[in-house]
Design a protein that fits this description.
heterodimer, A: alpha+beta, Glutaredoxin, elongated, B: alpha/beta, Rossmann fold, Ubiquitin-like (UB roll), 5 domains, 5-stranded mixed sheet, 20 strands
């Protein structure tokens, strides 16, 4: 991210170190991950030790230090989805993509993640693809969805 | 609209809004909450807009996007007023008929009405549907009549009247007294009396005080806070402002998970609108009371919902619990007294002020007053949010409101209280659901997740699932929790893989004891509940896995085999084409077989087979 852009984010929060979380989420939203350079810049601007920023960046599930895939597949593994078979869907996607949750395919095309609950329990099992909710999933449907995404 | 400087002005504005609304003949509400949205209610909404415009009915029909009505199973849901006609599972292609038949000719479209899966009866009105009929929607009710992005709708429903009443006619101590007398207990799961907590913060020596809304709804399988924030954000803001006045705080925070984008959007819109009208900010309604609210976003850490961890997160630190020698109510954000309550708790406050203590105390049982919202999910016919008086028996919630278990399957367990709760069997279904009874049974109420499981769910797998969750979410500060959850998970994993030993059950109980007793916060303190409650009520399932190497529910992959029923199989070859492992052998037109060595037990063949020829055995 350009320094100017980054400064706009910092200033949006009044350069207040207690707002670090919001800033990190904003960077992540734009860059799809947290680039080292940006974190170093944040550290200088906010007067926060870089270790503190890394501590936060590695603590929260939603933040990533590595680039995320072009297509983001989030499998909800909340309890309601689990009892309706989310594990089978996750296995299928892992197998097909050859990656584990939290990893990205080598061509950076797909990133796979599990989320604890997206709060759409009535639709379970839910898979969220690039922000779109897909409810009542099955292993077969997930497999077909992946094939469609691969074609595009 | 300009900034309101007195209660009289607020009432005048309300009158004006009501007058404007009185000319509207028909109101069509459509749920755009997350559940319905996933069923594409947005397209239905846009089609409705176009159809209304095409018939030049914009003047007569008010089309209102609302938050979650609760009956997510049937989404997208639309309700037409007057008449309260409720249409379920509406598709864009139904819209033309809805306008031309129902709105213009008063004809009901039978196909869109709700049909009860048990009795087969159809229902016209939303409130007559069995799912809603026995609910007491004190808190959630207004979700279906309010556009969350429009403060006027909230004002039309009497919104901010409780705040006005408190600011102009009650001393802070009187407000606290009312909340105490109403015996409002923390809906986040703790069940601690909110009024007592408020009083502690009010009486704490520091002058600067904070109030906090905990909207870091982390329990998987629970989404009532999300629906409240999305559907009626002003209710929570009003409750928070009343609390701030009573406690003596001038600043508040709402800590929301970033996984809830719509809640974040609707809440920040609501804060903006309330500030503009002078219902938040400086000199609220000209009374001299100042109160500003800020949103803080969380980023997916379950433990951050714990009060001291949440306070750390608000300060911009890692959301880890800290020792609570002094409670956050006395020493919270930056060491200042901070009163933290859950979304639903705050939402109860304006209702108590408006309706009074006597009325409120009439709902619920002896030590548990008011209602509780549950997210009724899992293997249940009517999935959704139900709000019932505290003390309602589990059986009523599951069988009457929830419509029982789908597909004629047998009920096995209900899990309450989130990951740290417990699983209760059939024999405890008559237990009243409240803070105290569930605890006595080895579970807890938690924030209101209620996950129903049937005979196809393996209880060892469920315990393993929760332990996996807890081991990941343990922040790692205490050895007992970090290592205890990991070890319990490993043992459970071995059992589900058929590698369990008989002494494992005793070992599980020992580790559970240490984890419970030697951990700092509630995460570790309750982490063993899923293991202990399943061991207590479903020990036979553990034993079947260990002694017979068998999974009675046919879930655990290492212990099951897929076989093709040679009599039912027609040899259509569909499963053979779909099987990713090429494990299905045979020629077309003749019964096929599965090579158990190659089979990964993914279940695709079972799902695809049209002749029910694939069986799972254990």
């Amino acid at each position: 991210m350009k320094e100017k852009e980054l400064d706009t984010i910092i200033n949006k929060y009044g350069a207040d170190p207690s707002e670090i979380m919001g800033m990190l989420l904003d960077i992540q939203e734009k860059e799809k991950y947290l680039p080292k350079k940006d974190l170093q810049h944040l550290s200088v601007k906010l007067g926060l030790p870089l270790t503190r920023i890394y501590q936060i960046a590695t603590f929260y599930e939603a933040l990533s230090l590595k680039p995320l895939g072009h297509n983001q597949i989030h499998v909800c593994t909340g309890t309601a989805c689990h009892v309706r078979g989310a594990a089978g869907i996750l296995n299928k996607l892992e197998e097909r993509l050859g990656i584990k949750p939290g990893e990205v395919t080598s061509d950076l095309n797909f990133g796979l993640k599990t989320v604890n609950c997206v709060g759409a329990c009535a639709l379970g099992p839910v898979v969220v693809v690039n922000g779109e909710y897909h409810g009542e999933m099955t292993a077969l449907k997930a497999d077909r969805m992946l094939k469609r995404l691969m074609k595009n | 609209m300009h900034r309101l400087t007195s209660v009289e002005e607020l009432e005048k504005v309300r009158e004006k809004i009501l007058k404007e609304k009185s000319t509207i003949k028909t109101c069509i509400t459509i749920c755009l909450g997350t559940g319905c949205h996933a069923y594409d209610s947005q397209t239905v909404y846009e089609t409705l807009q176009n159809e209304i415009a095409a018939h030049n009915l914009e003047e007569e029909i008010e089309l209102k996007p609302t938050g979650c009505h609760g009956f997510c199973e049937q989404g997208p849901i639309i309700v037409l007023y007057p008449g309260e006609i409720c249409y379920c599972r509406v598709k864009p292609e139904n819209v033309k008929d809805i306008i031309e038949m129902t709105v213009l000719e008063n004809k009901i479209i039978e196909d869109l009405l709700y049909e009860d899966p048990v009795s087969g009866n159809k229902f016209e009105k939303e409130s007559e549907i069995p799912f809603y009929k026995d609910q007491n929607r004190l808190i959630l009710g207004k979700n279906s009549s309010i556009n969350p992005q429009n403060i006027n709708d909230y004002l039309a429903e009497g919104g901010y009247r409780s705040l006005a009443k408190v600011l102009t006619g009650m001393a802070p101590e009187q407000v606290i007294d009312k909340i105490k007398k109403a015996n409002l207990r923390g809906r986040g799961g703790g069940g601690f009396p909110a009024g007592v907590k408020w009083e502690t913060t009010r009486n704490a020596p520091e002058k600067k005080k904070y109030v906090i809304v905990n909207a870091d709804e982390g329990d998987p399988g629970a989404y009532m806070d999300r629906s409240l924030l999305e559907g009626n954000p002003h209710l929570i803001l009003e409750g928070l402002a009343i609390g701030a006045y009573a406690i003596g705080a001038d600043e508040g925070f709402v800590y929301v998970r970033q996984e809830y984008p719509l809640a974040l959007e609707n809440l920040s819109t609501a804060i903006g609108q309330a500030e503009k009208l002078g219902l938040l900010g400086e000199n609220i309604l000209g009374t001299g009371f100042n109160f500003k609210v800020k949103i803080k976003r969380g980023a997916g850490a379950f433990v951050s919902g714990e009060s001291s961890a949440l306070v750390s997160a608000i300060e911009g630190k890692v959301g880890e619990p800290r020792p609570k020698h002094i409670n956050t109510a006395v020493s919270g954000i930056y060491g200042k007294p901070s009163n933290l309550n859950n979304v639903e708790t705050w939402a109860n406050v304006p209702v108590i002020i408006e309706k009074g203590v006597d009325w409120y105390s009439g709902i619920g049982n002896e030590n548990n007053k008011g209602t509780k919202i549950f997210s009724l999910v899992g293997k249940i016919n009517n999935t959704g949010l139900v709000e019932v008086p505290m003390g309602t028996p589990l059986r009523k919630i599951i069988y009457e409101l929830g419509g029982g278990i789908p597909g004629g399957k047998k009920f096995k367990a209900v899990q309450t209280g989130g990951p740290s709760g417990g699983c209760l069997p059939e024999s405890h279904l008559d237990a009243p659901v409240d803070f105290d009874h569930l605890k006595d049974l080895g579970s807890m109420m938690g924030s209101g997740g209620m996950i129903v499981m049937d005979e196809d769910n393996c209880m060892v797998d469920v315990a393993k699932y929760f332990m996996h969750f807890l081991k990941d979410e343990s922040c790692g500060k205490c050895v007992s929790c970090r290592e205890g959850t990991k070890k319990m998970y490993e043992i459970l994993e071995a059992i589900t893989e058929g590698k369990g030993k008989e002494e494992d059950l005793l070992l599980l109980e020992e580790i559970a004891w240490v984890t419970t007793n030697a951990s700092l916060c509630a995460l570790g303190g309750t982490a063993a509940n899923p293991v202990l409650s399943t061991l207590k009520y479903f020990r036979d399932e553990y034993e079947a896995h260990i002694k017979e190497k068998r999974c009675p529910a046919k879930v655990c992959k290492a212990l099951i085999t897929y076989v093709i029923d040679q009599e039912k199989c027609t040899g259509c070859g569909l499963c053979q084409t779909l099987c990713p492992e090429k494990a299905i052998e045979g020629e077309k037109e003749a019964p096929m077989t599965i090579d158990a060595q190659k089979c990964s037990r993914c279940g695709i063949c079972l799902e695809a087979c049209r002749f029910e020829a694939i069986n799972v055995t254990s």
